[in-house]
Structures are given as structure tokens and as C-alpha cells.
Amino acid sequence: MPTFTVSITSDEALRTARLDAEKVYRDLTPYYIRVKLQDDGWHIDYELKNKRANGGGPHYVIDAETGTIRSKRYEQ
Asked: I want to staple 8 with a disulfide (CB 3.0 to 4.6 A). Which of 25, 26, 67, 71 is the partner?
């Protein structure tokens, strides 16, 4: 369990990640979404549903107190 105050819900963190990801990927329907709260914030990972497809999706760490994007990485 995190040792900090969680002010942002998983839905709020997911919304922040989705809005950013749609700017780059536009269509996010080919991805499964995993959301997990860890010591450094909400981890949101978009993984391709089709394992045979090349590339990957965006990966985020969202600050659980402020809701800002702490880090992001795009796999295309």
C-alpha cells in the first residue's frame, strides 16, 4: 500500500492518461488497459489485444496526489 495520500481516483488517473494518449494514438480500442496503484503513483499501461501485432501502447505514471503525469512512454 502506498505511503502517501491518495487524492486522485483510478478513474481520474485513467482519464488523464486517456486524454493524453488520444492525442498521439487517436484510437485506443486495440488496447487493454491495466491500472495499478504503486508507491510512485497510478501506473496505467495500454497493452495491445493482438499479441501478434507490432508496436505497443502508451505507459503512464500519474501522481496519486495531484493527478499530473509524472512520466509517460510511447511504444509505436
From this structure: 67
Domain that holds residue 46: 10-73
> 1-59: per-residue pLDDT in tens?
556 688 999 999 999 999 999 999 999 999 999 999 999 999 999 999 998 888 889 99
- Looking only at the bridges linking them, the beta strands covering 69-73 and 59-62 are antiparallel
Position 59 in a domain: yes
Tally of domains within the chain: 1
**Is 5 inside a domain boundary?**
no
